[in-house]
Amino acid sequence: MVKGGVLKRVAIVGAGPTGLYTFFSLLEAGIPLSIAVYEQAEEAGVGMPYNDDENIRLMLANIASIEIPPLTEPYLDWVRRQDAAHLARYGVDKASLHERQFLPRILLGEYFRDQFLALVEREGFGLQHRCA
Q1: What is residue 104's DSSP assignment?
Q2: How far is CA 29 from CA 23, 26, 33, 113, 125, in A?
Q3: CA separation for the pair 26, 21 (Å, rounded)
Q4: What highest taxon heads this organism's lineage (predicted)?
């Protein structure tokens, strides 16, 4: 039980990668909290540098797969679970994937979005979406 019966409240402004890793770290700490995540975009988790409004399909992320800290699963494992036809849309050959590869930014954004949703589901949180 929390002291005084009141949960500490935390607000995360921005649900891009930094907000997502902050959210993940708070969950992993195991401290009872009330967490609110605020995001201006329609999809939380993606982040501006990785969304398809700001990038074209072939723009590469500036970080190799191995350098991306895992959330609910490593990035490369997530990419390998994707359909070959979906990856081909981004010029990615599923058969030649490797951990030192630089993959498209938009694909990394999809990973971050899926990881955000997986964390929400794993923890049993509800989502409220409000447009400003």
Answers
A1: B
A2: 10, 5, 10, 21, 16
A3: 9
A4: Bacteria
The 8 Å CB, 24+ separation contacts for 23-31 are 23/116, 23/119, 24/71, 24/115, 24/119, 27/119, 27/123
Q: Hey, where are the domains in the chain?
A: 3-123
| 26-41: pLDDT as tens digits | 999 988 888 989 988 8
Which residue from 15, 76, 78, 23 is spatially nearest to 46, judged by alpha carbons? 15
Residue 44 corresponds to which tokens in the numbers above? Answer: 């939380």
- Give Cα separations from 86 to 19, 57, 89, 107, 129 (angstroms): 27, 11, 5, 10, 27
Neighbours of 114 (CB within 10 A): 18
Instruction: Say if pTM beats, i.e. exceeds, 0.90.
Output: no
pLDDT given at position 132 = 53
Question: At which residue do the structure tokens 């990419």 appear?
Answer: 79
Q: Which residues pair with 12 in a beta bridge?
A: 37
